[in-house]
Amino acid sequence: MKKIFSLLLAVCLALALTACGGAKETPAPDSSAGAATDTPAKTYKVAMICDSAISDGGWGAACYNGMVDAATANGWETAYTDSIDQSAYADSMISYCDLGYDMIFAPGNQYSDAVVQVAADYPNVFFAVLNGSETLPTANIASILPDAKQIGSIAGIIAGTMSKSNVIGFIGGMELDTTKAKLANFESAAKTINPSISAVSAYAGSFNDTAKGMELAASMINDGADVFFGDASAVDSGARQAIDQKNGTGAIGIFDIGQPADLLGQNPCVVCSVVTDNAGMIGLCMKDVQSGTFGNKVVYGNLENGCVYLGKFNDELVDADTQTKITDYVKALQDGTFGK
């Protein structure tokens, strides 16, 4: 019934758009032209659904911008539906499928069940799931998987090098496998640099609760945390607000590490970011759709292929010697010698 309703909605929308466009006169055929004509190139379309806002300054924004950048590079059209509840995941995807979209981009493992459900009914639509599991791919489903261990380790390198209190903080949205991997490697890498460091962590149970992010960060600051890293989208934005409030207008002594986009300049407390090139990985999926090779694979992103990398430093908060140390540690991580 939901599928029928979505199809009727799509048809009504198409009719409405036609009506708004007005009637167009069709020119008479040119008899001087040959019978054969070139078939216009297909315009591909991709849509993103997201439970956070594309204006959240974090995960939602980075994923949306990645999709748009990839689409621009490959000549695709885009659409999105954001700030939706879990109950609307499947229906939102079905609506785009019925409107003729070629690919659905789902920016998180939490969409996997809905993707599997919808993909079974739409075998000619392709679904790309960011942070999807390695067992998720089918003929029309691909996982996009940035290296969570490397992401956590890069953040841990920054935190282990920057912390003065020997306490670092991590805030997660949900207890997803990728988030847990980031936390484990964040703590491990920091301890590799400074064995005296301890990590305090918490999960918000949400990716949208900015107030919860402020609450958790304030509590961790009271516990002595002076470098933060998060994997919780809008919750991370709340954490940065709490950090900025605590720093006040004086010298900045509590820092935040951004992800997945380069967040330098977004908040005064951001010292650096761990950047995931979502556009690069989404673009690979688009090329697979166009070449007919999509599906049954995981599209990986890591330091080695440039889809995970160290962002720009805040020169006012990170001196040149510290920047060199962090950069050298990250190079060692890439070549497999970090901590050895």
Description:
- This protein is of the alpha/beta class and 340 residues long.
- Helices cover 43% and strands 18% of the residues.
- The strands form two sheets. The protein has a six-stranded parallel sheet with strand order 2-1-3-4-5-11, with helices on both faces. Strands 7-6-8-9-10-12 form a six-stranded mixed sheet, with helices on both faces.
- β1, α2 (59-74) and β2 (77-81) form a beta-alpha-beta unit.
- The longest helix is centred in the first third of the chain and has 20 residues, at 2-21.
Summarize the structure.
Helices cover 43% and strands 18% of the residues. It is built from ten helices and twelve strands.
Furnish the topology, listing elements before pairings.
Layout: H1 2-21, E1 45-49, H2 59-74, E2 77-81, H3 89-98, E3 103-106, H4 112-121, E4 126-130, E5 141-146, H5 148-162, E6 167-172, H6 177-193, E7 198-203, H7 210-222, E8 227-231, H8 234-247, E9 255-258, E10 270-276, H9 278-291, E11 298-301, E12 308-310, H10 320-335
Helix pairs in contact: 1-3, 2-9, 3-4, 5-6, 5-10, 7-8
Poorly predicted segments = 1-36
Strand-residue proportion: 15-25%
Tell me, briefly, the overall form: globular
CATH class of the largest domain: Alpha Beta
- The helicity comes to 40-55%
CATH homologous superfamily caption of the largest domain: Response regulator
How big is the Rg?
23 Å
- What structural category arises from helix and sheet content? alpha/beta
Q: Could you state the order of secondary-structure elements as H and E?
A: HEHEHEHEEHEHEHEHEEHEEH
> CATH topology of the largest domain, which one?
Rossmann fold
Number of domains: 2
Major beta sheet, strand line-up: 2-1-3-4-5-11
**Ends distance:** 59 Å
CATH architect. name of the largest domain: 3-Layer(aba) Sandwich
Summed over residues and divided by their number, the pLDDT gives a mean of 89
Give the biggest beta sheet: 6 strands, parallel
What's the total number of strands?
Answer: 12
* Tally of DSSP helical segments: 10
